[in-house]
Structure formats: structure tokens, C-alpha cells
Amino acid sequence: MDFFVYSRDAADAADLRADQALLEEHWSYMDRFAESMIARGPTLDSDREIATGSLHVLALRSVDAIREFVALEPNNRAGVYAEHVVWRFENLLGRSMWEFPGQSAERRFLIIGRSHRELPASLETLPAELLERLIIYGTLTTLDGGEPAGVALAVQAADREALDALMEDERIGLRMFPEIEVHNWEFGGRR
């Protein structure tokens, strides 16, 4: 099963994130999940300098396994995160972020659209200009009941204005979501 975890930073997370020993502990923990990782990386403030949260999308054997992944994650244990949202994730692109063929010079964004209605999941309805910019794309469902929870996508765009123009395209269907979060995002991992 694939799972989507978005963890929001606590108010005092910047000091904790500056701890190099904790950073190494976090990376070492993530190394244990390298084979199952679909996407990972921090969300960032408007200046793209300070982390505001973390994304982890990975394949694990069960709901209990994803709960354990979150509970034992070093940043979580140290108090970096104020909260987590965890869903099942249907990886509609069938690839990881490392297989994304796009240019690294452009900015990356994470979009989470929440809805409790059944969602259209067809890649065929998406415009070509979005498809070539998608890093990850999938539907979200609740952990236990499998009820619809929304959609998540990571996309590459020249800037926020270009992203907003893509999001306005009715073929994407983001207008149907009563709640949409847009985060500045970058690929995670050892630097």
C-alpha cells in the first residue's frame, strides 16, 4: 500500500531543524525506507528558506506500518512537527519523484486538495502542459475506511503565477475541492 504523510512543523521547529545531529538521524532513518520511498522533501515558507513541514510518500505493508513510520521518525520524536495528516495514496503516475524527467531549474510545489466526494482519477482529462510538469499525482483516501479524502500532486512551474495559471484550468478539476493547500516544496534527501 502507498501512503501520503504531510507533517506540519511546530512553531519552534527552526531551532530543532538546525541541529546537525538530528538532521543526520533523520536522513539515516529515511535511508532505511529508500526502496519504498515515492517522494519526500520539505515544504518551505514564501522565501523558500525556512521549512514549514515535510512530505513523505512511501509504500509500506500496512496501516500499522505507516503509523510506526511516523511515530519513530526522529524529527517527530524530537518535536519538530506539530501535527501529521496521513492518508492512503493511489499513485496514478506509477513512478517516484526520482523518475521525474523535468528540469530542476524551476520551482516545485505541493498541492493538497481535500474533498469527501468520489474524485475523478483519469490522467486522460489532464492538460498536456500539466502532465509534463507532474512529479507525483494521486488520490487520497482515509487510512481505515478507504473513504475519499482528496487529491495530492507535486508539480514543477516557473513560479507561483505560472502555477496559479495551471491550477485555474478547469480540466484539472481543482475547483471542486472545498479546501486546497499550496506549499512551496523541494526534493528531500541527503545534500
Structural description of this entry:
The chain is of the alpha+beta class. 24% of the residues lie in helices and 36% in strands. It has helices spanning 13-17, 20-31, 63-72, 74-78, 128-131, 160-168, and strands at 2-9, 37-44, 51-59, 81-91, 107-114, 134-141, 148-157, 179-185. It has an eight-stranded antiparallel β-barrel with strand order 1-3-2-8-5-7-6-4. The model has no long low-confidence stretch (mean pLDDT 91).
Multimerization status:
single chain
Number of strands: 8
Q: Mean pLDDT across all residues, rounded?
A: 91
Q: Reading side by side through the largest sheet, how are the strands ordered?
A: 1-3-2-8-5-7-6-4
CATH level 4 superfamily of the largest domain: Dimeric alpha+beta barrel
Distance between the amino and carboxyl termini:
28 Å
User: What pattern of helices and strands is seen along the backbone?
Assistant: EHHEEHHEEHEEHE
Tell me, what's the shape?
globular
Described by strand count, sense and barrel closure, the largest sheet is:
8 strands, antiparallel, barrel
Count, helices? 6
SS class: alpha+beta
CA gyration radius, whole angstroms = 16 Å
CATH architectural designation of the largest domain: 2-Layer Sandwich
Q: Beta-sheet strand percentage? A: 35-45%
The CATH class of the largest domain turns out to be Alpha Beta
Helix-strand blueprint:
Blueprint: E1 2-9, H1 13-17, H2 20-31, E2 37-44, E3 51-59, H3 63-72, H4 74-78, E4 81-91, E5 107-114, H5 128-131, E6 134-141, E7 148-157, H6 160-168, E8 179-185
Antiparallel strand pairs: 1-3, 1-4, 2-3, 2-8, 4-6, 5-7, 5-8, 6-7
